[in-house]
Each structure stands twice: as structure tokens, then as C-alpha cells.
Known about the structure:
single chain; 121 residues; 0% strand; mainly alpha
Amino acid sequence: MADFLCNFLQTFDVPLFMLIFAYFLLKRTPKINGDWGFRTKAIQSSETVWNNAHRLWGKFLLISGIVTGTAALLISVHLGITGNVSHTPMHIQWVIQSALLVSSLIVTEQYARKSNKQAIT
Length: 121
């Protein structure tokens, strides 16, 4: 049981961050500021783009958090049942989490730039 809990805590830290951050982005979207949030020129161009970009980012993080949190649980159960000392599944999950975080930033920035181009024309 201790191994399961240890493995779960090691694999669930990033999904937990994603879920908490998604909550704040979806329920308590910040006003345009220089302290926190997704702060690029494209996103800070208007209040509408700022709010929509943060909602999009929040949805992406919510889905990513649920998917990787479920994977963390399954990996922990697998490692606990098999007694496997290899941490390869956790490393694979870390790579997937990193890819999801980076892609969420790219998708949100592209959305903001597209919104700004449509507003100009």
C-alpha cells in the first residue's frame, strides 16, 4: 500500500496542478495584468481575447488533467500490483504531460493571434 501511495503521489502532482489551474482559469478568470495568466501581446490585446484565451487554456488543462490523472492512477495500480521497479511508465507519463502543457500554450497563442487578425479585418 505504501508503494502504491508513493507511486501515485509521484505521478499525480502535474495532473493535480493542471486541475487546480484549470479551475482558476475557468471560474475565476483574472483581469488583464502583468502578474499572472498567459501574458503575451496577442492575448493581452483586448479583454475579450484575454478572457476567451484563458477559458480555452482552462478547458485544455481540465481535459489534460483528467486524462493524465487517470493515467497516474492506472500506472500506480500497475506498479503496485506487479511490484515492478521500473519507472518507465512514469517517465512516459511525464513526457506526455510535458507535451500536453506545451501544446496547450501553442494552441492558446494561435487562437489569440487568429482572433486579433479577425478583429483587424
